[in-house]
Every structure is written in structure tokens, then in C-alpha cells.
Amino acid sequence: MLKPYKPPDYDYVPSPDQSAAECAHHPVIVVGAGPVGLTAAIDLARHGTKTVLLDEDNTVSAGSRAVCYAKRTLDILDRLGCGEPVAAHGVAWSHGRVFFRDKQIYGFNLLGDEGHRRPAFVNLQQYYLEEILVDCARDAKLVDLRWKNRVLELDAHGDTVRLTVETPDGPYPLTCDWLIVADGAHSSLRHMMGLDTESTMHQDYFLVADVVMKAEFPAERWFWFDPPFHPDRSVLLHKQADNVWRVDFQLGRDADPEEERKPERIVPRIRALLGDSRDFELQTVSVYGFQCRRMERFRHGRVLFAGDCARQVPPFGSRGANSGIQDADNLVWKLQLVIDGKAPEQLLETYSEERVFAADDDIHSSLCSVEFITPSSKASRAFRDATLELAEHHPFARRIVNSGRLSAPLVLTDSSLNMPDADPFDGAMVPGAPAGDAPIAIAGKASWLLAHLGGGFTGLYFAHRRVSESEFEALDRLVADPVPVKVIVVARPAETAPLVPNGCLVIEDRTELITRRYDGRPGTFYLIRPDQHVAARWRALSGPLVRGAVAHATCND
Questions:
Q1: DSSP string, 113-178
Q2: Collapsing DSSP states into helix, strand and coil, what is residue 286?
Q3: Tens digit of pLDDT for each residue in 123-178?
Q4: What are phi and psi of 134, to 5 degrees?
Q5: Taking a C-beta distance cutoff of 8 angstroms, is the pair 459, 523 a contact?
């Protein structure tokens, strides 16, 4: 077997702030160096804002915890320069299988179609993700990561947030303009502010075990309903890095969590699943009860909550870390515009608006999943089993089967920042949708579309012909605006690259997949937000319309 994972110990280094004559002040402080806090700090650094990141520990998370990172999250990590090591170390997968009793009833492909840089999911233990993000934060010169710095007191009244921070050398004060709280489900800062979360509970218990073993199973998600080796319950299996396999057993409402954690209870379950005598080792074990929680709103004045401290969902939908990283992705560009004086504070209310909507979507999906996986009545059980029987031969029934709806790109259809379509379009790239990827070429060199979207506002212009003088002038002005729009001009392979203003990028739609995905007729213009969501689109380029949509998307109209 492999050697057990040894977490790194990061050095506590005293900060000059601790011995300063006056209380040090920073634009942004982030509390919590987990995936969400690290993502927020790295993103702010890429925008040019120095961030102090406080964590009460000096290592990464214990156990694998989150393991499935969705394509949308991988796209965000790519934008921050952290995606490649995650993809290289993790286990890529897009396929899964569903079993009922003693047989497979169907398989599925979560990616759906081709032409994406990343798979539907990459499985990687959370401690590895955190190590990668810590390295990225260290490379970002504007992230001041302080280990063994625990927040003792918080005063968030007025325009300045005041903190008292405990260290091995004693406490010291800090102030900041903005505080991002990402300190997890048991958030001490949320409790300091007297804030609570609305909770939905379910009585069923689940056992999660990370098992080290050499197995020839494919890198797929396997889910069993009522299997012979664990009757009347469900089981989930999928692979992580280093020959570690995540196994999730439904235990039932009468289970004793303390008893179920004991090896003599766990080992026979895994042996029955494997059906052979192969060697394996238990790496980590936990038992959880189903619960969903969220705060009423994610912004409280100058304090912004993200990740598990703002919402909590059960792990079988792979929505926790994915949603938390997407919180940071939604928040940072808005906060940066406010810091730069290019947007009013009202823009931060849309962070709460959009991410509360996302949290409610996560919670609804989780509730639907648990009702299907653990039916609450005989009628529900009969409906579920009949659906599973039908699903073997009928695709319509497969759409009803719910083995844990996995994290999927959220379409912000009702966001107040969208501009509604004034022209007819086909396809999925509606206002509020995350931008789709596609292979491209730039001056003959292969690349990917999403590598050039995000960070700031981007215009996607389907020229497919010579750019006229009036279009040239409109593009030139957009690039030079106070809130600039970086323009990407899409050309087809057979066409000569059009002449465009300085600051515009010409890309070649090698497979014409961008044109098909975006319904990109000649003249079509898409405005993409800094978090890669579509803000607006038109069939003809109009500088005033684009400028108005930027103003609307930044609450400046």
C-alpha cells in the first residue's frame, strides 16, 4: 500500500503589523485559507489588490473531504493559473453508471459533447487542492498568507472592520475596508456577528470512507440502489488520486454514528462491496447526517460571506467546494470594481442576490436527491423502484433517476445584471449562462476560448468578414473605456484575419464550434462578464448598447 499522506507544516512568521506602533489597515482581509479563501485572495491579487489571508491553523485540511471538482470550477482555476496542476494530479472522468439491485441499468456522460479543455469532473483530495492553491498564493506577490492567526474579536460597524487577531506571540489589532469570511461550516466569525443559518435536516445517516487499494475499476462514478451487498440502502464509489477510492454507504435513520465509525463495522461493508479478498486500508472515515443550511443573505455591510460559512449542503452532490469557489469567482470582480471606484457598493448586493439563488438551487437539488435515494414512505419507495426498472430500457425514466444531482454550471437567467435579448438567438449561451469553451488558434497556435475570457469584461465579436470603418471605431472606443471591454474578434479558418484596433485579439474558429455554440452569425456581439457569464448579446455591434450593458452590469446605470 502507499504511504499515508503527510500534510505540510507551514511556518508561522510574525508580521510587521504585530509590532507596529499603530493599528495596521488593509483594503481586504480574508479569513480562512481553505479552497474558497485561497481562491478569493489569489483572484484579488490578479486584479492588483493586496490581500491579507488569515488562518488559525498551519496546514491543509485533514482527510480528503471535497473530492469532485466540476468543469466550471476547473475553468475558474484555469483562469487563476491553478487549473493545470489540479488536472495533472487528479483523476479525470465524465462517465458514470447506475445499478439497481444486481445489475447495471444504464450509463451516462456528464460532459455531453466534445470541444472542451477540461472533463466534466476531476477527482482530487481536498488537501492536494489546498496545497496547489497555497503555492499559487505564494507565487502571487500580493497575498500575505498568515498562518496561526486566529480572529478573536470582530467589530463590523461603520465603514471600517476591526479585528483582534491571536497569534503564538500574542494578540494584535487589524482594520480593513472589506472582510471576506470563508472560515467554514462552523464559522466563528458568523457567530461573532450573531448571524445564523436557516436549516433543513433529514434523519438518514451516511458513512464516507476513503479506502486505499489497487483496483481495476474505471475512473467513473458508480452508484448502486439496493445492491445485494448492502440491501435496502445505497452505495457510491469513485476514484481519487494515489489509488484512493471514495466509498459512501447509506446507513439508515436508526444508525449509531459512533458505532458505524468502528473498523469492525466498516471493513465487512467494503469487503462485501469488493466481493473478493484483495488488500485495502482505511485512510479516513466519517459519518454525517443530511442537512442543508444557508444564511439569509451573504453580504452584511462591509463583511462578505462565502463558501460553507454561508451555505452548507450534503457531500453526495459534489456541490460544497464547487459552489464555494464559484462564490469567490462571483464576488471578487465586483469587489474590485467597488475598490477601484468604478462601481457603487450596490454591485455587492448582486453578489448576495446571485449566490443566494445558487445556494437555493444547491439545496433544492440536494433535497430532491435525498428523497429519491432515501424514500420517506412506501409510496415514494414504490415510485423510485418502478422508475429504476423503467430506466434500464427507457431514456425518459433516466431523467427522473436521481443518484445525487452533481454540480452543474448555474445559469443566472434572472440576474438583475443581465440585459434581455432584443434579437432571436439559438443555443444555450443565453444572458446569465457561463460561456462555453471551444478550441481556437491564435496566429496558428492552438489554444482554448476560455483561456482568453474573464478577469475583465470581454466582447466576443463574430466578424467573419472585413471590419468596417464604423465597426473599427466602435471596437477601438470599447477597449479604451473607463471600464474597458477587451474585444476578441472571431474569424473563420478560410478567411483572412480582419484588421482590428490595437488591443483587440483575433482568434481562428478552427472547428467552427464557437460559431455553432454561440449562434455567431456575422456581426453578432457578445458581452461577457469578468466571471465568464454572458451579460448581453446583439446581432449587430453598437458601441452605445455595449456601453449601456456594461453600465447595467456594474450598477452604474
A1: SS--SS-SEEE--HHHHHHHHHHHHHHSTTEEEEET-EEEEEE--TTSEEEEEE-TT--EEEEEEE
A2: strand
A3: 999 999 999 999 999 998 899 999 999 999 999 988 999 999 999 999 999 999 99
A4: -60, -45
A5: no
Give Cβ neighbours of residue 69 (< 8 Å, ≥ 6 apart).
77, 86, 90, 121, 122, 123, 124, 129, 321, 322
Q: Which domains does the chain have, with CATH numbers?
A: 16-86+123-196+292-361 (3.50.50.60), 439-553 (3.40.30.10)
Entry pTM: 0.94
Closest CA to 45 of 25, 26, 70: 26
Ranked by mean pLDDT, the top range of 129-143, 316-330, 356-370 is 129-143
- DSSP of 453-470: S-SSEEEEEE--SPPPHH
Q: State how far the Cα of 515 lies from the Cα of 495, in Å rounded to an integer.
A: 14
Alpha-carbon distance of 162 to 158, in angstroms, equals 10
Q: Name residue 211's amino acid.
A: V
**Residue 157: other Cβ atoms inside 10 A:** 9
Residue of 489, 552, 501 lying closest to 525 (CA atoms): 489
